[in-house]
Amino acid sequence: MSAIRNVLMATLALTMTSTAFAQDVSVLRIGLDGSENEADQIRKTECVAEGLKVATGVPEVQIFPSPDYNGVIQGLLGGTIDIASMGASSYAAIALQDPAAVDPILTTAGADGSTGYYSLLVARKDKGYTKLADLKGKKLGFADPDSTSGYLVPNVSLPADIGAPVAEFFGETGFGGGHENLVLGVLDGTWDAGTTFGSGVGEWAEGYTTGNLHTMVEKGILDTDDIVELWRSPQIPNGPLMVSNKLPEDLKAKIQAFFLELPTKDLACFQGFTGGENTAYVEVEPAFYDTIVAARKSVIGD
């Protein structure tokens, strides 16, 4: 009897400790990666913040916009950011530095049910470029050094199609300060071409069903008649919704449940937050991103 009593007491103590830990979390912090302009990213995240308060019982949910991807990466590594939805290369950066820092818990399913998307290389149509060879010696803009579609995948996949390393084929390369700014830079002539992303599904006039081009068309700052797609990568796994492992397990479970239910409870909020006509969140494991982790290690090294 005493052995059973000891087990019961230990279990109770563990439960009370876990509950106290959860109750001690007074704020959740959502990181935004700067891929879109700050005001629009915050506006699309406000409904998520409000819903998380109700779903988790945490009284305050704060939104932290960063000017670039690395700010959120460092926040997740350091424990100053609790939740973020980013590309697979950003997750890879974290996993390579500290595999225990975050869990990738969910990713999106697109309009066709796919859990993948594409890196797209675009240029102004009036430049007259019709094929990759036309870009030899030209200026190529990347979105962000921690972007999967805007930097990592083009560096891995483009060389096979241009017959040379990216740095040798193009006359100049650089970074455009996020996907939206990069495409605006292509339009204003800062770059001859630039790398961004989209689902590759749906109408070109709408910028496809999801991705940066779609978002820019919806906001009225891009007419796809003004640009041309010159290259498309192999399919990339959709980026993860990541949760810090510094949070208690019961709280992480509530966060996951909230996001899984969001598409059916508030489709407009879900599609705004995820950037297009996505249909659902689906659960993922770290292994889903093994190829991107390996690619990042080979190209970037961290």
UniProtKB/TrEMBL annotation:
<dbReference type="GO" id="GO:0055085">
    <property type="term" value="P:transmembrane transport"/>
</dbReference>
<dbReference type="InterPro" id="IPR017797">
    <property type="entry name" value="Phosphnate-bd"/>
</dbReference>
<dbReference type="Pfam" id="PF12974">
    <property type="entry name" value="Phosphonate-bd"/>
</dbReference>
<feature type="signal peptide">
    <location>
        <begin position="1"/>
        <end position="22"/>
    </location>
</feature>
<dbReference type="InterPro" id="IPR005770">
    <property type="entry name" value="PhnD"/>
</dbReference>
<keyword id="KW-0732">Signal</keyword>
<comment type="similarity">
    <text>Belongs to the phosphate/phosphite/phosphonate binding protein family.</text>
</comment>
<dbReference type="GO" id="GO:0015716">
    <property type="term" value="P:organic phosphonate transport"/>
</dbReference>
<protein>
    <submittedName>
        <fullName>Phosphonate ABC transporter substrate-binding protein</fullName>
    </submittedName>
</protein>
<dbReference type="GO" id="GO:0043190">
    <property type="term" value="C:ATP-binding cassette (ABC) transporter complex"/>
</dbReference>
